[in-house]
Amino acid sequence: MRLLVVVIGWILLALGVAILCHDLVKWILSGVFEVIDVGLFWFLVHPDSLKLAEPAIARHIHPFLWHPVMSSILLAPAFLIFGVPGVMLLYLTRRHARPSHGDLFRG
Length: 107
Fold this sequence. Notes:
Layout: H1 2-30, H2 38-45, H3 47-60, H4 63-74, H5 78-92, H6 101-104
Helix pairs in contact: 1-5, 2-3, 3-4
């Protein structure tokens, strides 16, 4: 289970870093800093599912979940939405250093 969480964490972190690199290269080439938001990223990856998500969530779960919650997430920078959870998953699944025998007897 830990391995699966670590792999998901690395995938999310790599995706966040790749999107940030794309934004930085675009900034260097054009001179205008524009970040890709989650909504645009989702549209570029799979536009049909984005079109179906709003009616599915609003009708089958609750309208409140789409308009204040999901619309705010869709406007957030994509590198943060992917990178921050990736870092958090990797931080939570890190291995702790075991104390050596000498550390146990020190006061």
